[in-house]
Amino acid sequence: MRLLIVEDEKRLAVSLARGLTAEGFAVDVVHDGLEGLHRASEGSYDLVILDIMLPGMNGYRVCSNLRAAGHEVPILMLTAKDGEYDEAEGLDTGADDYLTKPFSYVVLVARVRALLRRRGTGTAAPVLTVGALRIETAARRVIRGGDEVALTAKEFAVLEQLALRAGQVVSKAEILEHVWDFAYDGDPNIVEVYISTLRRKLGASAIRTVRGAGYRLEAK
Question: Contact at 8 Å (CB) between 143 and 201?
Fold first, then answer.
């Protein structure tokens, strides 16, 4: 899943990005409201973490502009303010959830995962079952034939993208877009490395290569 963080406190933004990347998310970070609006409007994000007090354009306006333009991406608002009015205003502009600083990182991750599970389209259910594979998205666990398979965060993220569209072809570009961040400019063949690793762990026939198109997770 690909996340956008719009937060002008750079140390906090970097800390959140590192933590969420370690959880297996692809994370982009911007520090200005106008840039956040542009990136959220143009990018393909699964969730936006949006601070309220931002230079250029505040979070309320970013949120309301996104909703007015028809963007339905889940938005988790962050603010140092504390009060019912602020929460009501944030939710009235179209935010899906609200977190007041200072907050627990564990709580933030739980809110992010809850919003992704509640999202109306294309979201992972708490458990995905593909043949003998059981993929527990909240617990980040993979069970194959009754045995747990140890995966790294990136391996899990690649598998999750394939499982969300099990039986369908998922292109290398789509995997890069949702598992690696916007700034990634390395070798796109990194996807093949992770596919190879997943085949070793899940079985060579679990993921089929469709030449010139991408990869398909098979129900075995």
Answer: no
CA-based angle 190:202:116, to the nearest 5? 70
- C-beta of residue 113 within 8 angstroms of C-beta of residue 76: no
Number of residues written out for the chain: 220
Nearest to 191 by CA among 211, 169, 219, 215: 215
Q: 74-90 burial, b for 16+ CB within 10 Å, e for fewer? A: bbbbbbeeeeeebbebb
Q: Are 135 and 163 in contact (CB under 8 A)?
A: yes
Strand partners, 99: 78
Decide: 207 and 195 in contact? Cβ < 8 Å.
yes
Question: Which helix or strand (DSSP H or E) is residue 194 part of?
Answer: helix 190-202
Nearest partner of 94 among 27, 140, 40, judged by Cα: 40
148-197 tens-digit pLDDT: 999 988 898 899 889 888 889 999 888 887 777 655 667 778 899 999 99
Residue the block writes with tokens 């956008």 = 4
Q: What is the pLDDT of residue 25?
A: 87
